[in-house]
Amino acid sequence: MTISGTMLYSSQNYVTIGEEAKDKVVVLPLGAIEQHGPHMAVSTDTDIVTMVAMGAEEKIGEKMMLCPTLSFGSSHHHLSFGGTISISPALYTQVIVDLVSSLLEGGFRRIVLLNGHGGNITPVKQALALLSHRYDKDIQPNIVLATYWELAGSAFAGDPPMESPALSHACEYETSLMLHLFPEKVDVSKVVRARRPKSNGYTGWEDDEPYRGVTIFKQTSFISSNGCSGEPQLATAEKGAHLYKYAVESLVSFLESFSQWPFLDKLTNNNNG
After folding, report:
1. Residue 269: pLDDT band by 50, 70, 90 thresholds?
2. Domains of the chain and CATH, by start
């Protein structure tokens, strides 16, 4: 499945980019190159987030400019399975700071980091804190992290036709999306549900327990026998088409809203109410 775009950052010259910067939301997709079990390509996270971004660009290209996807993510927890190329969390935070700073230097003030990999979330949030400290005093840009499956809400959290409770890793959700978008990168003959640790009642090894304020972090090889999570054996291309539709629509709705967000000024305390 391919989608051609018209407002792609990499296809423009620097003059056009500079002219468009003040009026456009710039979207930088964040992927990963990491193991996705024995049945899927290591490019899965990068492929999916790129296609979701391209689907939105096709619909509202007049409001956004789409950067090339940052293919490498923070994936050290997957290294023991092989196939993974990872940036350490601290360095990934600095990479995001540098890339966003470059976009700000180029004149963009509305920046969306569109995430497609769970391991990126914490270091990107740290980058947002550093960027806020650096730039809020002078230019007050709107810079956000948006993770596509969280934007899409209940469609990625158990609503029919999905049969498992939430997206995890190389699961029913990701496998379905890849069967729809890139079926040549899925070997259904190798789909096997992983063995996992027994639930302890407090921490979810993937989606087996609701969040109760307790976090433990383990390398993937300690919580999955083959690198998968969830229920990949339940995946279908039809489910993938359903998920892709919701992912694109939710991203479009968010970008249309974000393009109108005001830039915030510093609030002052006074006696005028």
Report:
1. confident
2. 17-191+236-258 (3.40.50.10310)
